[in-house]
């Protein structure tokens, strides 16, 4: 009898260990594309997006370039690492530099319906919206 109970419980334990504890697994994923609307309390002057895939993958469109990164910190913490991007110039290059600079400094995340807020202890914030 104990063996039968163990065999029934084992798949539940294994599946709970493989749950995505990142932002993607807590409302930030599901194929949603998040558009940056505000940086440090001001409307963002260009177009930038982020989306969270499976296994800690993040990607998006910065004002000039496409990028990819890894996000493995458990929710509500946030940290992007291994950021790679294309290297094209455009008229929004200053906005792109501001975007990447802020994104790499974010340490907390909060998802509330169609709003994603990334922030840090220094008072910086990025507000994203999705449809």
Summarize the structure in words.
With 131 residues, this protein is of the alpha+beta class. It has one domain: Lipocalin. 21% of the residues lie in helices and 34% in strands. It contains two helices and nine strands; from the N terminus they run αββββββαβββ. It has helices at 2-17, 93-103, and strands at 34-39, 42-43, 49-52, 57-61, 66-71, 80-85, 108-112, 115-119, 125-129. Strands 1, 2, 3, 4, 5, 6, 7, 8 and 9 form a nine-stranded antiparallel beta sheet that branches. The longest helix is centred in the N-terminal third of the chain and has 16 residues, at 2-17. It starts with a helix and ends with a strand.
Q: What's the architecture in CATH terms? A: Beta Barrel
CATH class: Mainly Beta
Percent of residues in helices comes to: 10-25%
Low-confidence stretches: 4-8, 10-17
Structural class: alpha+beta
Ends: how far apart?
51 Å
Number of strands: 9
Beta fraction = 25-35%
How large is the radius of gyration? 18 Å
Main beta sheet: 9 strands, antiparallel
Number of helices: 2
Q: What is the succession of H and E elements?
A: HEEEEEEHEEE
Overall tally of structural domains: 1
- CATH-defined fold name: Lipocalin
Mean pLDDT: 88
Task: Give the overall form.
Answer: globular
